[in-house]
Amino acid sequence: MPLLRTTPAFIEALKTMGIETVEHLVTYLPRAHEDLSRMHCIADAPPGEKVTVRGQVSRIALVRTRSRKVIVKALFTDLNGDSAEVMWFNQPHVKRMLTEGDEIVLTGKVEEEGYRLKMMSPQFERAGGRPLVHAGRLVPIYPQHDIISTKWLREKMLLLRSVIRDLPETLPEEILREEHLLSRAMAIEAMHFPAKPEDVTHARERMAFEEMYRIQLASLTERQEWQRVKQERLKIPMDPEVIKAFFRTLKFTPTKSQKIAIYEILRDMEKDTAMSRLLEGDVGSGKTLVAAAVMANVLAYGGQCALMVPTEVLARQHAETIARMLVALANDLAKRRDKGEQVPVLHMPSVALLVGSLPAADAAQVRQTVATGQTDIVIGTHALIQESVTFADLKFVIVDEQHRFGVEQRLRLQEKGSPHVLTMTATPIPRTLALTAFGHHDLSVLLEKPGNRKVIRTKVVSPRDRFTVERFIDQQIGEGRQVFVICPLITASDHEEMAEVKSVTREEQRLKESFPQRRIASLHGRMQPKDKERIMRAFKDRQLDLLVSTAVIEVGIDVPNASIMLIEGAERFGLSQLHQFRGRVGRGEHQSHCFLATTVAQAGSARLKAMEEHDSGFMLAEIDLKLRGFGELFGNRQSGFSFDAFQEFLQPEFIVRARRAAERTLGEKTFAGSTLAARL
Q1: Which residues does the chain have with pLDDT short of 50?
Q2: What integer pLDDT is reported at residue 637 of this predicted model?
Q3: What are phi and psi of 598, to 5 degrees?
Q4: Under a CB-based contact definition with an 8 Å cutoff, are residues 348 and 246 in contact?
Q5: Which of 219, 297, 423, 463 is the least buried, fewest Cβ under 10 Å from its Cβ?
Q6: DSSP assignment, residue 560?
Q7: What CATH code is assigned to 232-446?
Q8: How far apart are CA 583 and CA 448, in angstroms?
Q9: Would you give the DSSP letter of residue 612?
C-alpha cells in the first residue's frame, strides 16, 4: 500500500503545530499506545472487540447502491482458511489499492450476521517486505490536528526511524548514568516503535524526568539569580519577644503550623540574601496572622513592608485587619513599658492604602509618605508596582494570592528594593506538586485552622430541591444570619446552551421578588471599585441580608455573620474554586451551610460528591488535579508547566530525584527543598 503523500497543505498544517524541522516531527510523541501485536484468527476473534487478522483478499468488487453510495466488497481468508466478507463504505480508492491475492493485515471488529462473518470498514495494510505500521505491534496514537492524522504520522515516523537514532542528547551523561535513564534517542524511538509495554514505560520515565529536571533547573537558576546579591541591610534579627508579645494580644492561640511558618520566615530573613518563600494554607488557616507577625518583627528592627493583593476589596480588608493587629501590639508594649517591664520598643505603625480608585491627590500623598519613609506598611493592588511608587527602605514584600499576578508583575514589586519576599496562596496545592510549580521558593504549609471552627455542612442540591433550600435560607435570615449566592454569569446569556445558567442580574431580581421583605444586593467585576466597596461594607455591617455575586468574592472576603453559601451552577466550577467559595462562610460562631446547586439533575454529581465528603482543601486539590490536570488547576500561563501528559510521574520521590539532579548540575551545596521533601 503506498504511503500517504506529503503535500504543501500538510506542510502548512505542521507549521501551525509548531513543527518545522525533522527534529520537531520526530519529537512529536504519541499520547497513547494500542496493543495490536497479537494476530487473531477469524474463528477465535472475540465478538465486538477490535482485532488484527492476517490473510489474503479476493473477489474484490465495486458496488453502487440505489442511493448512489459506493461499497467495496471483498472476501478475506485468514491463514487457517476461515473467511469473512469485508466491506468498505464510500471508499472507492480501496478497489484501486488492492489486487486479487494480496496478503494484507486487517484491523477491526469481526461481526456475525446470520451464518456469515463480516468486517465493516476495517483498517488495512499490505503484509510484505516492510514492517507493519498500523497493526501487528504496539501501535502509537498521536494527537491529531487538522489534516495531520495519527495514520499519517505513523507512516512518516517509519520513514524517519534512522534519523531518530542520531538525535543529540539533552541531559548530562552523569545524570543518565546515575538515574538509570534511557538516552534521548532510545527513548524517542521506543515511544514511536516499542517492542513491548515496558519499553513505553521506560521511555515515558525518561521524557518525564527531563521535563521535570528542566523545570527544576529553571526554578533553581531563578532563585540563584534572585539571591545572587548579598546585602548586609537584608539581615533582620529575629526578636522572639516581639512575637511573644504579638501572640499575647490575640484572642486565641496560634496553631502549631502558624508558629512553625513564622519561625521559618524569620530565620530566612536573618540571612544577607533575599528570602523567596511560599506560604501555602487552606481557606481560613490564618495566613494573614503569619504575615502580620513577620511585619511586627520587621518594624521593630526598622524597615518598610508592602503587601500586594489582587482586589481593592481585599486590600481594604487587609489594611484594616493588619493595622488593628499591629496597633494592638504597639499599645500593649507601651502599657507594659509604662509599668516598668523590659519589652521591645515598637512605635505606632503607619499603615497606608494604595489602590486604583484612590483620588489622585490622596494617592500622591501616599506615594510621598512611602518614598520618605513616613509610612511603615503600604497595602494595595497593582497600583503598588507603578514606576511612580518608590520606597525609602523596603525590607519585606508579601504577594497575596500570588497565582493571580503574572511573573513580571511580581518582579516589578521585588525590584523596588531587593526585599525579602513572601508569596501566599489560599489555593491548596497538592504538596507533591508544590516543589514543581514553585520550585524557586522554599515552602511553608499551614495544616490546621485556628480556633474551634465548625465543619461547614455541604450538600449537592438538584433543581427539585430548590424550594426546600430557599425556605431554609429565608428561615436562617430570619434568625439573623446572612447569605452569599454565587452565580457563574453577570448577565443572562443569549446562547441556547447557556440559557439555564444563572446570572447575577437576573437572580438578584428573582430573589427580590421572591423575598420582598429581605434586603438583597449584588456584586460583580464590572462594578466601579467604590460601588464594590460600598456594597461589601453594607454587607459586612449587616445592612444587607443576601448578597448575589460572581466569583469576585472568591478571595479573602471576611464576614463572620455570613453562614450560608449557595453556589448556582456548581458543576461549572472546579473543586478548588468551590472550596474557596465555601471558605467565605464558617468564620463565625454559628453553624454554616454550603449548598451546591446544579443546573440539571445529576449534573457533575460524582465530582461534587467530593465536596460533601471532604473539608480539606488539600484533598480536594488532589482530586481536582486527577480530574482536570495541572494546567487547569494552576494555569499554564502562570506556571509554565506542561506536565499533563506525564501525570503518572507526579510523585514525591520522582520530583525529588529531578530536584536533586538539577542541584548537582548547578553545584548546589544543600537541598533547597529539604523541608518539603521531609514532609512529603
Answers
A1: 1-2, 496, 632-641, 669-680
A2: 36
A3: -95, 155
A4: no
A5: 463
A6: T
A7: 3.40.50.300
A8: 14
A9: H
DSSP secondary structure string, 399-433?
EETGGGS-HHHHHHHHTTT--EEEEEESSPPPHHH
- Alpha carbons 584 and 594: distance in angstroms, whole number: 10
161 near 140, Cβ under 8 Å?
no
Start-to-end CA distance of the chain, whole Å, equals 54
User: What residue has cell string 501525570?
Assistant: 647
- Given a contact cutoff of 8 angstroms between Cβ atoms, the answer to whether 14 and 20 are in contact is yes
pLDDT in tens, 159-182: 999 999 999 999 999 999 999 999
Q: Choose among 260, 310, 283: nearest CA to 620.
A: 283
Give per-residue pLDDT as tens, 477-509: 999 999 999 998 888 765 545 557 788 999 999
Contact between 585 and 594 under an 8 Å Cβ cutoff? The reply is yes
**What whole-number distance in Å separates Cα of residue 645 and Cα of residue 667?**
30
- Residue 409 is predicted with a pLDDT of 64
Do 38-136 and 232-446 share a fold? no
Exposed/middle/buried for 27, CB within 10 Å: 0-12, 13-18, 19+?
Answer: middle
Q: What is the DSSP string of 212-239?
A: HHHHHHHHHHHHHHHT-S--GGG-----
Longest dimension (CA), the chain: 110
Q: How far apart are alpha carbons 136 and 287 in whole angstroms?
A: 58
Strand 116-120 versus strand 83-89 pairing type: parallel
Burial of 680 (0-12, 13-18, 19+ CB in 10 A): middle
Rounded to an integer, what is the distance from CA 296 to the centroid of its chain? 33
Question: What H or E segment, with its residue span, contains residue 656?
Answer: helix 652-666
Distance CA 217, CA 288 (A): 31
**In the numeric block, which cell numbers belong to residue 510?**
428573582
CATH T-level fold of 457-614: Rossmann fold (3.40.50)
Name the 3-class secondary structure at 72. Answer: strand
SS (H, E, C) 311-354: CHHHHHHHHHHHHHHHHHHHHHHHHHHHCCCCCCCCCCCCEEEE
Place of cell 494570592: 401
How far is the C-alpha of 431 from the C-alpha of 622, rounded, in Å? Answer: 9
Residue 231 CB coordination number (10 Å): 10
| Integer Cα distance of 305 and 394 in angstroms | 6
3-state secondary structure 497-515: HHCCCCEHHHHHHHHHHHC
- What per-residue string of b and e applies to 386-405 under the rule 16 or more CB within 10 Å gives b? eeebebeebbbbbbbbbbbb
pTM of the model: 0.67
Domain ranges for the chain: 1-37+142-166, 38-136, 232-446, 457-614
Would you state the CATH architecture of domain 38-136?
Answer: Beta Barrel (2.40)
**Distance from the Cα of residue 428 to its chain's centroid:** 10
